[in-house]
Amino acid sequence: MNGLVSQPPVDPATLLRQHGVQVTAQRLAVLRAVARRPHGTADEVAELVRAEIGAISRQGVYDALGTLADKGLIRRIQPSGSPARFETRVGDNHHHLICRGCGQTVDVDCAVGSTPCLTASDAAGYEIDEAEVIYWGRCPACVAATAPPADD
Q: Which domains are present in the chain?
C-alpha cells in the first residue's frame, strides 16, 4: 500500500457551493459535460449539455464555462489555431500533447522534477506560478496510418 487515501468524488453541486458559485441546472450540466469530455470545445460541451437537459443557448454555455473557469473549477486552454478547450483537471501544472493529424489532445505531466517548467532562464522579476506548454506531434494512430507498408 502506498499510504495514499483515495477521496470520494465531490458532488458537483457541493463543489459549486464550495467555490461560491450559485448552483443552476445549466452550470451542473456544463461541469458534468466537461468532466465527461476532457479537452472538449464549447460546441462539444453544448452538445452534451443539450443531450442532458434540453435547450440551452450558446451564450448560456459560454457564460457557464467562463464562470467555472474564473472560479478555478475547470481549466481553459487555447492551443494555437484551435478553439478554446476545457478540462476539469485543475490544481496542478500539467501540460498538453496535441496530434497535428487528428487533433486528439492528452494531458502530460511535467517532463522531470516537480515543476521544472516554472524555472525560467530569466524570470525578469516575475513570480512565476504557472506555465502553459503544448507539445505538438502525431498520435500513434496517425503515425501508423501514414507508415509505409512493411516489405514481406
A: 10-88 (1.10.10.10), 92-147 (3.30.1490.190)
